[in-house]
Design a protein that fits this description.
This protein is about 45% helix and about 15% strand. By secondary structure, it is an alpha/beta fold. Helix 5 runs parallel beside helix 7 and helix 6 packs antiparallel against helix 7. The longest helix is centred in the last third of the chain and has 25 residues. The protein is elongated and about 100 Å long.
Amino acid sequence: MSVTPLSKPETQTATLSQQQIQYVFFFGGGKAEGNGKMKDELGGKGAGLAEMTNAALPVPPGFTIQTAACREYMKTNKVSEALERQMAAALTRLEELQKQKLGAGENPLLVSVRSGAKFSMPGMMDTILNLGLNDESVQALARKSGNERFAFDSYRRLIQMYGSVVLDIPKHAFEEVFDGQKHKRGVKLDTELTAADLKEVIAQYKDVVRKHAGRDFPQKPLEQLTGARDAVFRSWNNDRAKVYRRINNISDDLGTAVNVQAMVFGNLGETSGTGVGFTRNPANGDKEFYGEFLMNAQGEDVVAGIRTPVPISELHKLMPQVYDQLRDITSRLEKHYRDMQDFEFTIQEGRLYMLQTRNGKRTGRAAVRVALDMVNEGLIKPEEAIFRVEPNQLYDFLVPKLDEKGDIEVIAKGLPASPGAAVGRIVFTANDAVTAAGPGAQKNPVILVRGETTPEDIHGMEVAAGILTSRGGMTSHAAVVTRGMGKCCIVGAGEIEVDDKKKQMRVGAHLLKEGDWVSLDGTTGRVIKGQLGTVPAKPDDPDLQTLLKWSEPFRKLGVRANADIPRDAIAARSFGAEGIGLCRTEHMFFAEDRIGHMRSMILARTEAERKAEIAKLLPMQRSDFEGVFKAMDGFPVTIRLLDPPLHEFLPRREELMVEIAQLEIKDAKSARLQEARELLRRVEELHELNPMLGHRGCRLGITYPEISEMQARAIFEAAVNVSKAGVKVFPEVMIPLVGMMKEMENQGAIVRQVAEQVFKEKGTKVDYLVGTMIELPRACTVADQIAADAEFFSFGTNDLTQTAYGFSRDDISKFLPAYIERGILKSDPFATIDQEGVGELMEIAVKKGRKTRPALKIGICGEHGGDPASVEFCHKLGLNYVSCSPYRVLTARLAAAQAAAAEELKTEAGRTK
């Protein structure tokens, strides 16, 4: 077969006038109406099919219905007459090219109907194969192929897929029939059922359709086609697709294309097969031809994990010519797209057909490895390589490893689909995983164990620490999705028998039930009984360091870390943090040796008593700050003065009332009873209806200036002490919750006065700054006034989001899922900055603050500081730095570099034009 070179075709515009919009794009006969650049219109799959067709690769012909049709359908629940006309014309063209009629004649045309969005969403939307078969055409197919079993196997697959996808019949209704027939015949494999067996299955499938759908399975091929098309459109908004888009930050507004393609059959016998593969190893990035296939099977058998497939290297032994052709085609595809390709293929009676190519999903480690190798191979440049890795993927370099001290018991081994370690309690369903993991950040680790995962499991996979399946291969649903998520995953552990109804798994003599602990090593594929510890990884991987070396020259935004203790500060420096952007002093007061003094200070009746207790805390705070300053030698450290309301340092009211009641019964004269009563009295005095907007932040420092004085003294004494020891120290004192200029002036004066006192006492000075946390809308609008006294701003975007929206961060989980499901919010505003609202407030503060103080240093220290989209926004605003948790520093560094590099490329492109 002669194959034309892959070239760069001219860009084609899909969007015409509203009256003349081209909905349908044909591909076939060596030419396509679309091309690989049209992912917005044709989706990734359709664009790939068009590009391969234009290169004269062996692609079954067909047509793609563009994404605009889906968007219209989602608004109106119908398709336009223009689409119907164009689809009919494309179908006629396909029939003429193939010299077949859809579902009719002695050689009936059968088609597949597949989804295909701009961004890969593996398994999340729907596919229907063998469309066009009915009671008559199945007989024709049997006569034409000379293989009755193949024909009826194809028909039963169509009824099952169509019933599930189009008619919304539960999959288990069909599975029970099929498994029942295998049990009746005493066979284990699908392929062991005869044509006669499959005819019985089909008859029972039709009964299932009548029972659940209240109608017969449609016999008209055009009715099948339009039903399948509309069902694929609807699948854009199924639950699993919406969850996947939320997890991967894909817009709900894009819609999916629909690809209608002439069927080729991998289930025609032992000279036919189907497979999926990658041009490189998606788990570790090694340059190896990587994939799996099954003979006498259709594509869904491979990716669904129903049968454990065979490594693609075995194809060389079975069909060396097909193998060599496949290698040649996929190698050229990789060079053309200049990226690792994920491809699908079918072999029909010894002839190869390409069904898909797209940029392949990969782990973070693989992404870095592939990017570096492609630079070394001359396929891409270093400045391109930094965009080949998603910033969040760098977390893969920080995934823990199992701590294997002592005896361990390896009970099974599977395929290492996604690396890392995961330790948790076993659950057997996605819903149980969500329940067991619990809401919010404080989740209980769970391991989701399945025979194989399906797209419906996506919500359980999201919350699980790791995934374990007994079936499936390295290209199965579980493997592909977890690699994209960066989660530990082991698949195809065939020794494990999973019984999700009894909620147990058996491995040889071992029986593990729901709630039992298990440990997974996703790097080696080992399944270990019990709860092992984990060891944190170190960011010293040479590949990672090379990528960062390429990216750092672009970065303009500084990256600091939030750290309260020296251990966290040391970790942050190892990840490349350039200072501490938030050191929370209140965390230091909760230590066992301090909480008593803190409570005594709160209970004090006079200022003198309060100062006496505060004096006991001074040396402890000073020691804390000395440790952090030493850890960050040479870098700035921003220390926030006491922020939370005082009642947080006291026992809960309910707990005290229970204790008092018990003590009154046991010993009414005990000293502890009097102490508990005094605590309760103070707790009730401090009680507030809305403590987050109450007596906290700078308001504490104003009403109790001795607290601010003590903390300032501890900071500056620590700074002077370490400075004398040769440590370069740059303290930045941050006043929290300022909303008015006079609040800033009040607290700033205290800090500066104490600083001068300490410098005079110690005979040494250090440079320092006094600034504020911008976390109230009013602070943003009067930032020009506040900047007259504040020498730096740091956005506390957690509280700024709370006060801008009127949302409670602690309670939003009660309604956030409904808001996202209904499209009221696109994402959690506490995870990604709301650029329209909160972002507008930030922009106001930046402009006003720098109008008063042009050199004003401005950063961000909320959790948003580690979110790539928020980091990009901060770069655009012109902030000086972002600050995030130590384990998000790598992510923030790459995100900041990408933001700056993208800006440079855009500017350069503008100059060229």
